[in-house]
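User: Good morning. I'm curious how NAP would be positioned relative to this chain. Could you predict the structure with it bound?
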Amino acid sequence: MKAKNCLIFGGSGQIGRNLIRKLTKNNYRVTVVTRNIHQKSYIIKTQANAGYIDVVEANIFDENKIRSLFKKADICINLIGILFEKKRGNTFTNIHSVLPSLLAKLCKEYNLKHFIHLSALGINDAIDSDYAKSKLEGEGNVLKNFPLATILRPSVVYSVDDNFTTNFMTLLNRLPAFPIYYEGKTKFTPIHCSDLTDTHLSCYF
Ligand SMILES: NC(=O)c1ccc[n+]([C@@H]2O[C@H](COP(=O)([O-])OP(=O)(O)OC[C@H]3O[C@@H](n4cnc5c(N)ncnc54)[C@H](OP(=O)(O)O)[C@@H]3O)[C@@H](O)[C@H]2O)c1
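Assistant: Good morning! Here's the predicted structure, ligand included:
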């Protein structure tokens, strides 16, 4: 059977690495877009057998550069997300709203079969959070440009590789007291990274 081509943005992260391993075992050829091929290519390349992964360095907002990658793709997955705004255009709006809009537009233009976009749980109610507002706006833009997109909304995603719960555990181990976020009333629905990526696979198998 001919391998399908999957284009992944944000594939060097926790969820991306786990997903690449599963996709390539299921006969997908994966192209991963990263900002820094020197820093990230060994992390990405070691997830699958040779021949299954291409790594491309690009500025994600360089439409001309990323446009060419859509020509041979069957599926596109967007895993790019930030928890904090940084300098040089790395704002919540740019990363969570403008970028997904661009990717969805290109998926439509190049007639891709699927576009899967990672959003986050609870964003409708978190009205005081710029993160949540940008994620919600991003979902709207995705559906406007690619109405049949699949949007996944996980809560906290944990695994040995994640930077959130593992840091949390370290702090809990070391500190004599720990401040409780929002008086302890915040509820999480944690999901293991592997269970989440199984959900990705079930979206298109
Ligand atoms: N982890 C969770 O608990 C959780 C919960 C809910 C939703 N999500 C969503 O799920 C998606 C994937 O999460 P993850 O935990 O795998 O994320 P991650 O480990 O932080 O990785 C995200 C990837 O995005 C790319 N990236 C980050 N900042 C960027 C920027 N400013 N410009 C371009 N690329 C950038 C990075 O790729 P390069 O460095 O290779 O360019 C990075 O590998 C995100 O959209 C996130 O919001 C995650």
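The pocket of NAP is lined by residues 10, 12-16, 34-35, 40, 60, 79-82, 90, 95, 118, 120, 154, 156-157, 162, 164 (CB under 6 Å). The first strand starts at residue 4 and ends at 9.
Let me know if you'd like a different ligand tried.
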